[in-house]
Specification:
It is built from ten helices and no strands. By secondary structure, it is an all-alpha fold. Helix 3 packs across helix 4, helix 6 packs antiparallel against helix 10 and helix 8 crosses helix 9. The longest helix is centred in the middle third of the chain and has 25 residues. The relative contact order is 0.09. The N terminus is likely disordered.
Amino acid sequence: MPMTASGSPSSPRTARSKRLPRHAARAPAKVTGPARRRSQAERSDESEIRLLEAAARVIEGEGFAAATFDRIGELAGYSRGLASAKFGSKDGLVRAVIAFVQRRLEARTTAALAMLDRPDATELILSWTDTLLEVVQTDELVRAYFVMMAVAVGNRADNRPAFLDAHEQVRVRLRDLIEAGQASGTISAKVDADATALSIGSLQLGIAVELLLDPTLDIGRMRATARQAVRGMLGI
C-alpha cells in the first residue's frame, strides 16, 4: 500500500487523487482554420517577379544572349512555356525588365531621399546621383539594365526607344528639380535646365557603364567626384 509523507499508509483513493488525469498531461490541441489560399492574381504577380529577377540575374551574370526563356524559366523554377507566355518575345522581355529595374531603382532612391532632413532641390539632385551610383555598384538586378542598353546600342536593336523613354523620364525629373532650385534661388538662373539635366543623366550613365567594364573601380571616389561635377553644372 502506498505511504503518506508521514509514513502512514494512504488510502487507494488518496493515492489516485495525486495522479494527473491523462488529458491534463497533454497540451490542448490548437484549432486553426484552413490556410488562406492565394488568389490567381497573387500567384501571377509572384511568378512574374521571380521570372524578372531570374532574367535580370542571367543578363547581368551570363550576358544578354544567355537570357533564353529556357534559362530564365529554369532559374526561376518555372517552365519555359510560362516565361514565353509572360513576355511573348525577347523584345517583350527587355521592356519588362526595364520597367522592373526602373521600379526597383525608384524605390531605392525614394527611400534614400526620404532620409534627408528638409532637402532643397540641390541636395535632392546630389543625393539622387549618389544613390544611383551606389545602387549600380551593389544591385546586380539594376546592373542588368546597363548590360541590355549596351547590347541595344551595339546591335542597333529595335528596342532602343525603350531605353530612350526611360532616360527621358530621368531628364524630365532632373529638369523639374533644377527649375525648382532656380525658383527658390539655390541654383543659378543662368543654368540651362534642360541641357544640364541631360548632362547629369549622361554622367550617371557613363560611370555606371564604366563600372560594368571595371568592377574594381573605386566607386567611392567616383561618387565624390560626381557630386563635385554636378555642383559645377548647377553653378553652385
